[in-house]
Amino acid sequence: MANYKYSYRYNETSDINISSSNVLWASLNYTPLANKQITAIRTKDHTATSIKFVVLDDTYEVLWVSNPVTPVNGIYEITNLNIKFSKDFLLGIVFQGGYLRGKAKTGTLGILNYTSLTYTTVTVGSKFTSYSGTSGNEMLYEIDYVDYSNKFLISSESGKGVSVFIGGYTENLIPKMTSLTAPSGIVTASSGITGGNSAWTAFDKSLNNTDRWIASGTSGWIAYEFSVPVRVDMYSIQSTSQTGSGILEQEAKDWKFEGSNDGIVWSVLDTRSNVTDWTTGGKKDFKFNNSMPYKKYRINITANNGSTFITVSELLMYSSISTVLKTVVIDEANFISHGMDKNNLIDLYSKVDVHSLISKSMESIGSGKVFKQKIDTTKIPIKKASIT
What we know:
Largest sheet: 6 strands, antiparallel
Number of helices: 1
Distance between the termini: 19 Å
């Protein structure tokens, strides 16, 4: 699965739709991945029926064109790539039907509109010098890559290679909400003030003073329902950026973080009491143990810090990623697939959640295959084994 180490994300002003189909739109900012093996590229939020990714050099010559890519769940993605360029490059998209979605932005970064390049005629080696520049538009894209000069394996006493992948947490699992039900999921609350303080504004990824959930009283709850059950074991609460007398008194003081699959029976996953040290625009992270996926999560506030209103400016949810120890045969393929990045910090005291013994050797027996791997049980205690 692609890791997408490099991303060009727009976070400026308003959305725009680029509707000139069969035209190449290329970002003016150079992708700084010279001499890196590109393994995957993706973009999203467009309505085009099909796109092709295009790589251009600084003279606007086409260096590479992908096969047609159609969207899956709104994401245009191409994986299993093995391409590399000697210089930083421009990434473009040429598309059929619908539109590309970008962001309006002031400044020099933006989109180049190559009017002479179409979906069917784009080829490697073509060079385009005629274009119209639109400095106010930006694209979103992400790239995964491998930097071989920055990888290593640890050699074990047995002659095998060992790599450790330290876990962490996912990005916020909740999308940027624009209403109670869009773009996905359902936001509900015990009560609330309408308009700019509706419940969904607690999930809109905005710190605007007015974009926060507010409800009358000293207690209440706000919830987000995923389309499928997911496991959450950390959440964050962002306090309001609004200043003034009594504003921080609206923040939660005592609450329970709860999960449910039917919205009726709720399981208490985390309890907090006497949280009084809120700061303007500050964010607090709360971690807890949870192995169960739930479809719906809520923060159930039982007391605030003294106001006649309660508020949540932003509520974010995350899922932990396991720490994995891999044992592999030392060869080029495993070095590429399982080698560690040199800039990663390895905490020798961190708990290993998964120990993977990776072997590619096999013997044919009849119509099936058996995979063999020796395990030294004096060094690796076996509590459970499964074959899939």
